[in-house]
Structures are given as structure tokens and as C-alpha cells.
């Protein structure tokens, strides 16, 4: 009987300690992007539509085209905003990518 009370007291104490300690977890970039993706520019929008909706970007990078034919390697332009980057093929959005919100956020490994 005493062992049952001791086991019960130990289980309750352990449960209270677990509850009292602060929870920590990794924040995944993928999870945040899934919730914020509706706020990013949509594929197919023009540069003027993006600028009208989101304002002037913090930085506009010069277009970069692949070697040889522009037909097979069109110029890609990147605009950086505080929370995301937008990639354009010619003058239309092909992708918008969220930036990390905090250094501890886990995302893809950088290209080496």
C-alpha cells in the first residue's frame, strides 16, 4: 500500500515538474511558410502589380540570364523585401520565398 502511494506521489511530482518547465521546440521554416504563403506575391503577377501591392523592395538585383539562348535561359530578377524575396522571369513572378524570421529557425542548408 505504501509503495502505491509513493508511486502515485512520484508520478504526480514528475508531471508537475514537466508542466512547470518551459517548453522548447524547433521552429521549422516550412511550417511558417505554409501559414504565410497566402501573404506572398502569387505566381504570374507582374513587377508593377507586386510593387503596387507590397511597395518598393529593399533591394533590386540586376537580371541574370543563363548562357547562350535567352529562350531556354531567360533572365531572372530578384527583389528583396524585409520578410521575403520575389523571383521574376522577365517581368512576371515565378516564385516568392520567405526569409528566416529568427536565426534559430531551421530551414534548408545554404548552397556550398
UniProtKB/TrEMBL annotation:
This protein's UniProt keywords: Signal
Range of residues in the leader sequence: 1-25
Name recorded for this polypeptide: Phosphodiesterase
